[in-house]
Write a structure and sequence with these properties.
Blueprint lengths: L1 H20 L3 H4 L6 E5 L4 E5 L2 E10 L2 E10 L12 E7 L4 E5 L4 E6 L5 E7 L4
Antiparallel strand pairs: 1-8, 2-3, 3-4, 4-5, 6-7, 7-8
C-alpha cells in the first residue's frame, strides 16, 4: 500500500513538473494519426491548444480511473506557469469521455476489462 501511494505521488509530481516545463505532447503519443493506447499507470500527455493535459489511469473495480492535470501550456523561460487543476473520473469499459478547450479535444475510451485506454486527438468542436 505504501509503495502504491508513493508511486501515485511520484507520478503526480512528475506530471505537474512536465506541465510546468511545457513537455512536448507529441513525444508522449507513440501512435500515428492521433490515436494512442495506454496501459495502466503509463503517462499520457496531450496539448489542447493553449492548455496541456497530462495524466494516467488505473484499473479499479473493473473501471478506468483517469487522473489528469490540466494547466496552461507556457514556456517557463518566458512566463511563470500557473497551478494545474486535477481532474479525476471513472469510465466503464467501452465508454468514452472527452476533455476539450476551444482549440483542441481529446477523447478517452476505456478498453476491455479496464486493461487499456485509447486516447484520440480530435479537432475542437464549435
Amino acid at each position: 500500500m505504501l509503495h502504491s501511494r508513493l508511486s501515485h505521488r511520484a507520478l503526480i509530481a512528475a506530471a505537474g513538473l512536465a506541465v510546468l516545463l511545457g513537455a512536448d505532447a507529441a513525444s508522449a503519443f507513440r501512435a500515428s494519426g492521433g490515436l494512442a493506447t495506454f496501459r495502466a499507470m503509463e503517462a499520457m500527455s496531450y496539448r489542447l491548444g493553449s492548455k496541456r493535459a497530462i495524466g494516467y489511469f488505473q484499473a479499479v473495480a473493473g473501471k478506468c480511473h483517469l487522473t489528469l492535470m490540466i494547466a496552461e501550456a507556457v514556456d517557463p523561460d518566458v512566463a511563470t506557469p500557473g497551478s494545474a487543476a486535477r481532474l479525476r473520473f471513472a469510465i466503464a469499459p467501452g465508454e468514452s469521455a472527452s476533455v476539450a478547450s476551444e482549440e483542441g479535444q481529446m477523447v478517452v475510451t476505456c478498453g476491455p476489462g479496464a486493461e487499456s485506454m485509447d486516447v484520440q486527438r480530435a479537432a475542437a468542436r464549435s
